[in-house]
Known about the structure:
mainly alpha
Amino acid sequence: MNSSRIVAPLRTIIAHELRTLRREGTFSTLFGIFSAVTLFSVFIGWSTRSTTLAIYAVTAAILKAAGVSHIAPNPLLGISTLAIFNNLIIYTLLVGALLAIVIGHRSFVRDRKSGVVPLLLSRPAGRPLYIAGKLCGISAALLLVLCGMFVVSVLSTLFIPALYLSGGEFLSLAAFYAVSFVYLAFFAALGLLFGVYMSNESLALLAPVLAWIAVVFILPELSTGQNPVSLLNPVTLAHAPAASGAFFSYARAILGPFSFGQDYTALALHFLRISANALNVGAILKLLAASMIAGAASVFALQKYSTAADQIA
């Protein structure tokens, strides 16, 4: 099979997936939701920062009037402006991952319910190219949405008074969205995998949601000892000490490699400069490997898929 017989069908599948997402309103809904939460996060972060600065200014003026000679410097001056985006970590962990699961799940289930899977798999493109096109189409949709969020984030900082980002902070913000893309791609691939593997539509959606609950809440809680509320608070989590004890030490060693939600949060805290911890390259590689493994598992599941019993409950 020459390159043209691979590229052409792959391009067709990707284009069809993007057109379907646009026609169903999934793409516009996803972009609208993420744009709204981005603007909301920026506004809340800026409002909180402005209020705190105003309180400090009033307090400092009162202390000066009272004759206090030494006034501690404003602690906010040592915090990066990117901290106003910290709520985006929570939105991506929760809303973003669930929407990615739904998109991945719907991608294959949609074809199964329409009855076109046997016809599509009989084409020369074959099963690997079909599922690869699905994965690339979903990934392209997520990438377009996150690029749009980055543009919205940048524009919001330009129109909010007294909020300026340096060139390095723009790059850090772009890196945050890049790692968010890898995180969401994993859950989209997981949704696609269970859509292929399971014949019951409800269970095919429930299974990746349960996996999401495990990697975002259960595994980090078991390995860190933090309660679920703390796991959702990026500022608190950045300064939370690791739980001590033999149980948590063993749990971290065994469950840590599968705590993708914790890895994503740590990376997001680093790129938004909320945490001073060094960049964990291993966490990035782990997220990339998880996404590729989920995609490869989808290919394997489709190879074993029987079109003779192509019915979904």
